[in-house]
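Appendix B, record 7
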Amino acid sequence: MTKALLAWIVQSCGRELELLPLTEMEGGAAGDMAVFTSEDFLAEPLPGPGMDCIADIRLRPELASCGAHLVTFSDSSDSADFTARNIRVAGSAAAFEIVGIGLIGRVRLNGMADRGAVLPAIAAAAAALTAGVPFAIMMDALNSFPASAYLG
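Structure tokens (predicted):
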């Protein structure tokens, strides 16, 4: 789901996903960016110096010494660079606030009444912002993400 969300955000600002250095979200490194949402990445090569590494904050100890620019996200820890706060599931939507690096915004993932949708959304947001997507465009894209792409 993180990859679908990130592709949606990137397309919303007139870019194509291929222009964003991206690897499959379960771990690994390619291009200039790696995104890690699970601990399964340990079998993959770690990102190196000069790369952006977007990672679940729980992976910080394993990635701290790899030399990459580490940007963290979390759905529970306020010490991450980007945090999902005030997570709520009501009706047919998951809602939360993205807080990070001087930014705050409200997200409503319509048609996704699943708390599990929040972590991929915050990961995609952190990756998009690190890649230079403007905050307002990222927020509009997350709030308009079609549930059919999630339910796929």
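Remarks on this record: Confidence is low (pLDDT under 50) at residues 18-30. The longest strand covers residues 82-90.
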